[in-house]
Amino acid sequence: MQFDWTTFILEILNFLVLMWILRHFLYRPVLALLDERRRRIGEERLAAEQMRNEAETLLKQYQSRLAEWELERESSRRHLEEQLNQARTEGLAKLEKSLADEATRLRARNDALNAAGKAIVTREAAITAYSQTAALLQRLASPQLTLAIVGLFLEDLAALPAEEHDALQRAASSLSTDAEISSAHALDAMQRAAVSQALAATAGRKLNIVFRENPALIAGLCAVIGECRLDANIAAELAFFRRCAGHV
């Protein structure tokens, strides 16, 4: 087989032309495409790394915030428990105080009711005693009892307190009418004279006295000198006793 240098040279030229064509029209664009792809991959890797760093930062922030939230929740729970315990304690204290106050009011009410009951019983007993005493004195009323009361009247008149003595003298000094002596039973001349002398001595002047009978006095007498009234009779004592019994 004969070697053809012309063909060999042409083949070499063809190969060189092919290499030039491949280099300028295929290899360079492919390299550029590969470089662009490598650049995008680098950018994406950098972005992914940045995103991973941001994600880690966010995760750390979330974990830190979660831990803070847990602490805040625990603190809020303890604070709420303390408030509830305090409210429960205050509520129990208020309830105990309210119960104590209610018990005090109930005791006071019971005491008042007992006192009212005792007062009613005492008043009824006093009224009964008054009625019985009045009935008894009505039966005991007699001229002798009136005479005895007149004697006591004269003794009391002689020992009259200074205030009442002065009041009697003032009433007697301004007297423009007769003095009046009412007695449950008729007084004899001696008794009238004794009463007149005693009143004159106490009043400091002679008095014109009118004597009358008043059975409503039951026993005893009543002396009226102007605005001054001196009672020494059973009816006045019973009236006083009745007033006291009504206020028991």
Overview of the molecule:
There is one protein chain. This protein is of the alpha+beta class and 248 residues long. Helix content is 77%, strand content 9%. The chain is built from five helices and four strands, in the order αααβαβββα. It has a four-stranded mixed sheet. Helix 1 packs antiparallel against helix 5 and helix 2 packs parallel to helix 4. The protein is rod-shaped and about 205 Å long.
Which tags fit this structure?
alpha+beta; transmembrane; 9% strand; membrane; 2 domains; 5 helices; transport; 248 residues
Q: Please give the domain count.
A: 2
What fraction of residues sit in β-strands?
Answer: 5-15%
Mean pLDDT: 82
**How many extended strands?**
4
TL;DR?
The protein has helices at residues 5-140, 143-158, 162-173, 189-203, 234-246; strands at residues 179-183, 209-213, 220-225, 228-233. With 248 residues, it is an alpha+beta fold.
Question: Topology, please?
Answer:
Blueprint: H1 5-140, H2 143-158, H3 162-173, E1 179-183, H4 189-203, E2 209-213, E3 220-225, E4 228-233, H5 234-246
Helix pairs in contact: 1-5, 2-4
Subcellular location: Cell membrane; Endomembrane system
Family: Belongs to the ATPase B chain family.
GO cellular component, one term: proton-transporting ATP synthase complex
